[in-house]
Input
Amino acid sequence: MTKYIDLLRDHQQKPDKKEKKKKNKKNAKDLASTHNPYREQKDKDETTLENMEALLEDHENETSHDDMLIEEASQEQVDDKPAVTTFTPPKTDNYGLDLAAWLGHVEQSLASIFTSVQNNEHFNIDILEEHLNTLFDQIHTSPKVIDVLELGINKRLQSSLDAHHHADLVQKAILMMLYTMKVGMQLNLQLQELLPHTIAAMLQHLGMAMVPVELRQKSEALTDDEMMKIKQASQSALSFLDAHHIQHEQLHATITQSSERYDGSGPQGLTGHDISWIARLLSLLSMFEALIHLRPYRQRLLPHDAIRDIVKHHKKEFDPEMLKALIESISLYPVGTFVQLNTGEVGQVINIHNKFPLRPVVYINMDKYGHAITERKVDLKKQPNLMIQKCMYEEGLKDLAEV
Output
């Protein structure tokens, strides 16, 4: 774990701090150390992408040195293991905005837009802008509101999968919204500057509303005719926008160039900054979202596994600045995921510390077997003896009862 932080932050070690770093080398494994502050975006010295694969592999191969603590935490052997107790998120602080209600309104608006596209009917893009302005105003006042939003989004992902005909597109749009905001803020975009890009992210796959849901979610190999329908979705979206006189510069750009790649391997052969800013960003986020998206026919990857896959196999296809911003804005233990500590206890990540990405706040409510225990909130930044051993999605909790 220490290597993860060191690789991300090595550029910020100033010469006059070398002696201090050497003196505190014995504390390098203390993940709560404050001697290595988190990198600020303004720093010019960059962590190279060549280090990222090693960084992510190091996290994958890391093993705990605290197996004794696990055994001490659970002395009794359990023969009949009950079903895993699912997590109920704690009440969050009052940020002045009912995020659950807000998210519901956004989902309804998106579903309405996708239905309008399917029926070839005009829709008003201003509705989404109003929703986002409300959220951005709240983020400006309380930046941590984005953690609460991410927790709410993760909670709704599974429950709303079959809620309506366009649920898959709505989920994709919501995730694209979240990650566009996070990466955009990491790249130092002002919220109002980020607004049109977020709209484009949410409506990037507009044309897929014209594709039958059975085809969108088909698990078997697509036929040539089916593949052609998928490929025609972007052109169908552009035709729809033109026919209904819906003008949005960023949305048109990303639909037109969504398949372009930074190294020129896309269909038009555009390279580097010849591709629009939003198209470069969304081509990366689309791949990332596809890897972590819950599908009825396959498991989803954890965020750090998805990033590892992109870095290992596709890094030349994407803008290196944007890829780096994605890595830095996506915690190894994102809000909403579940983690198991070196004590064996299990809980859900409810808050992260930007300066200490490996030390989130965890709401504990299960033992190592998935049995309910007394609930408590643990801030790992203040508990240096506690460490995370494993990260999982909610569907992975069922495996605890099989240990």
